[in-house]
Design a protein that fits this description.
Length: 135
């Protein structure tokens, strides 16, 4: 019987993997934006390129205990990351710009990146759990 529950032990493993990815990814993203003065899009993209590679292996083997080996799985994982990324950050930036219109652009972008990360995490879990690594 398939386990279609949204909340099960994989959620907690996913969160643990997410903590590792978040610490590394946020350091990369905010460092690129604030220290290297990269744009909003390049800074957040750097976070997700590096974090996604780590996430694939940790979630595949630790969270979802998936042993399938296929290019299709790598392709669908990449597609899921891209969809989640553009949805999350594409929504976060204009919403944050409207809500925090009186803030300077640097602070608005930092808030948008934080909101984008939260949206991305939720969307990414659903994609990995029910599409890429489904049992």
């Amino acid at each position: 019987m398939k386990n279609t529950k949204l909340i099960d032990r994989t959620v907690f493993k996913f969160i643990l993997v997410g903590i590792v990815n978040t610490v590394a990814g946020m350091a990369i993203m905010f460092g690129c934006y604030n220290l290297l003065h990269w744009s909003y899009w390049w800074s957040s993209a750097a976070n997700y390129v590096i974090g996604s590679i780590l996430s694939f292996f940790l979630n595949k083997y630790f969270t979802f205990q998936n042993t399938e080996r296929s290019w299709k799985q790598i392709f669908t994982f990449t597609l899921n990351i891209l969809i989640c990324y553009f949805l999350a950050y594409g929504l976060a930036k204009p919403i944050t710009s409207q809500i925090f219109s009186n803030f300077n652009s640097s602070l608005r972008d930092n808030i948008a990146m934080l909101i984008g990360a939260i949206l991305f995490t939720a969307l990414n879990y659903v994609g990995q759990r029910f599409w890429i690594f489904k049992k």
